[in-house]
């Protein structure tokens, strides 16, 4: 059986693609000309980063850096899970 092993590039690219799609969707959902603006924004998991950008808490550049780092972490966790079957969580200081 021939299996393709994902690379750190694949994980990071996937994270950035999902982030970009959500940023675009948030822009489409707005219509400043008609006065359609959200009163609040929220996100879960990867969606937290577009929410932070959309609310003005973080810059676009900062969220791109964080999403890129998240992709690297997710790749390392995938490798670790294959060998140990464990998961972890932690805090990240900005």
Describe it for me?
The structure is a single chain. With 94 residues, the protein is mainly alpha-helical. It has one domain.
Topology at a glance:
Blueprint: H1 8-29, H2 48-54, H3 60-84
The gist of it:
With 94 residues, the chain is mainly α.
Q: Tally the beta strands.
A: 0
Mean pLDDT: 80
Rg (CA only): 16 Å
Major β-sheet annotation: none
Structurally, the number of domains stands at 1
Can you give the helix content as a percent range?
55-70%
Q: Which of globular, elongated, flat, extended, rod-shaped describes the shape? A: elongated
- The string of secondary-structure elements, in order, is HHH
Q: End-to-end span in angstroms?
A: 44 Å
- Extract low-pLDDT stretches: none
Helix-strand makeup class: mainly alpha
Helix tally?
Answer: 3
Strand content: under 5%
What labels would you give this structure?
single chain, 94 residues, mainly alpha
